[in-house]
Structures are given as structure tokens and as C-alpha cells.
Amino acid sequence: MFKLAIENTDALRPASEVMDIQRLGVMRSTSLSFLRILIRKMMREAWEIEQTTFDIDDEGYGEALYSITTP
User: Fold this and answer.
1) Please, which residues have CB within 8 angstroms of residue 22's CB and are 6 or more apart in sequence?
2) Of 58, 54, 42, whose CA–CA distance to 66 is shortest?
3) What is the rounded distance in angstroms from the CA atom of residue 19 to the CA atom of residue 12?
4) CB 12 within 8 A of CB 6
5) Which of 40, 49, 62, 63 sits CB 3.0–4.6 Å from 56 for a disulfide?
6) What pTM was estimated for this model as a whole?
7) Residue 41 phi, psi (nearest 5)
8) What is the dihedral of CA 55, 48, 40, 53, to 10 degrees?
9) Distance between CA atoms of 25 and 42, rounded to whole angstroms?
10) Cβ within 8 Å of residue 5, ≥6 positions away
């Protein structure tokens, strides 16, 4: 499906360190918090999302277009 384009995976921290519950508990709200609010709104209002074009090559390049209908 999707693959990461990361050349030096040695630089990545292990998931056990990054996803530690103590570390996650001290995270502050960021602009990503908006995404959670938006997704909840989309689900609550049953937005219709239609894939109109999806032409992505094996390298992950191409075009993907979606049409979104809101109430």
C-alpha cells in the first residue's frame, strides 16, 4: 500500500520509546488536535466522501482527487 521514503531508519527511535504512556501523557494540544475535532464532526454529520480520481504509481507519485459533500 504505502511505504516510507526514509533512507536512514537507524535514526528512528523504537516504537516502545516513542509510544510510552508516560511520554504520551505529557503531550500538549497542537494543531493536530484540530484534525481530531474535524474527524469527529465529519462522522457525526455523515459527510460523504467520494474518490473521483486515483492514479498513484508504485513509487507513490500521482494524483488522487476526492469530492466531499457536507450537510
Assistant:
1) none
2) 54
3) 13
4) yes
5) 62
6) 0.46
7) -65, -45
8) 10
9) 26
10) 60
